[in-house]
Design brief:
The chain is mainly β. The protein contains one helix and ten strands; from the N terminus they run βαβββββββββ. The protein has a single domain, classed as Sandwich (Jelly Rolls), CATH 2.60.120. It holds the Pfam family Cupin_2.
């Protein structure tokens, strides 16, 4: 048996990200999934770019605020306590709109872990 408690605030934010991103997989000893906590101020996006993953399925659980997710078909508004799921090869860009009243905090879970799996997506190429 094994157990771990991770103080999320003790995990240093990733450098060079569009918003605060704390990668929790390694401190938590997770091998089968990636887990990150994002906190985005108004006008900030979560990912580095509009993208999709070839093999990874992602789930975004909104802890507080409202998350906007742009897809090729529409933009979704996900309120606190709701879950947004993205299947592999489905382009998306998650963000907190510039006119939002408050930050948004999101727990993002991806499986399998997909370092280097993100593929940039340009909606103008469609």
């Amino acid at each position: 048996m094994g157990y771990r408690v991770v103080d999320v605030d003790s995990v240093d934010p990733e450098p060079d990200r569009p918003c605060e991103c704390r990668k929790l997989s390694e401190p938590g000893g997770l091998d089968a999934a990636a887990i990150n906590r994002f906190r985005a101020e108004p006008g900030e996006q979560l990912p580095l770019a509009y993208h999709y993953h070839e093999t990874q399925q992602e789930a975004f659980y909104v802890l507080d605020g409202t998350l906007s997710v742009e897809t090729p078909e529409e933009t979704y508004e996900i309120p606190a306590d709701d879950l947004f799921v993205v299947d592999p090869e489905s382009p998306q860009r998650a963000y907190n709109p510039a006119d939002a009243d408050a930050p948004v905090t999101v727990l993002a879970i991806g499986a399998p872990p997909a370092d280097g799996d993100a593929v940039a997506y340009d909606p103008d190429d469609e």
